[in-house]
Amino acid sequence: MKRAKGLRLAALALGGAVLLSGCVTRTEPSVSTQIFVMDTIMSLELWEGGSQEQLNQAVEQLYQWEDLWSATDEDSEIWAADHSGGEWVTLSGDTVDLLSQALDLCRLTGGALDLTAYSAVKAWGFTTGEYRVPGEEELAALADGIDHTQVELDRDACRVRLPAGMELDLGAVAKGYAGARLAEQLREQGVTSALLNLGGNVQTVGGKPDGSPWSVGVQDPASEQVDNLLAIQVVDQAVVTSGSYQRYFQQDGQTYWHILDPETAAPARTGLASVTVVGPDGTVCDGLATALFVLGEEAGIELWRAHPELGVQVIWVREDGSVALTEGLEENYQVNPQHRGLDMTVVEA
Ligand code: ADP
Ligand code: MG
Residue 232's domain spans which residues? Predict the structure, then answer.
């Protein structure tokens, strides 16, 4: 579905309506906006060194990426790749860049992240909201059709080819990538303090204007309202959460969510309610959050220990409300006083 251009202008105008505070110690961003893009609400706050023009550019960039990567928009590059009948499809540089990083993450996670799960995502109704539970045979066939190793990406020629009938989507990585790229652009433009919340994918630029770290909340998956279990302190990092509570439906007393195990084509059930990944690269954080949710805690800890080069820290929230968190975060978190007594274990490298 195409968005009306008027919406974009309205979003820009909204951004323009936020005034400079002019205070020595800022209590508000110098410019900010909220937009609906990539199927989610995003809020962009430039706190130090940012202008309205830079904010507008970031907004326009997000809409352009959405146009390229929407799996449901018939004009997108992803749609073209998914409906090419096994032929090569030419891609723009940004799409090649994202796809290439995402496919690396599919390999690194042993296929727990698999972009080609999209046919299964559709079969469950997560793309339309017309939810259904596919039968066993259908699931087996869908699982057979998930295989990221069959995606051929030709970086030099900027083109991709999937087997006819296979479909991929970038939903598990696109917001993280967008945050990482926007942060990079803003830093280059001299922005020293910014907070981007791309639908729960948080990306920070620098720290707060006074130099102290940003405090980013990790939501209690069991709560209907926004209620943080804990907050972590970060500077220049991405904080990305994948959880079963973010998109789900219920049928016959069972809950089914939108993160699928590529081996079964069904919602990944490992006893986790959410996984949060903190690190310097938003794409890695987003891809890993999805993959670690699929893998479950034990296999996830193994993967984390095997890849110190990624520089990420992880928070696992189990379905029983208890939490495990990697040692690099030990000095950088506070439990929300309302959750005093939170059962917390520290995972060592
Ligand atoms: P969100 O988009 O809610 O922040 P994720 O980053 O975890 O959450 O991405 C979930 C989306 O990725 C799903 O909506 C679906 O389109 C797709 N997806 C689901 N399971 C997988 C998987 N195992 N690997 C890759 N993509 C997946
Ligand atoms: Mg993800």
Answer: 2-72+170-347
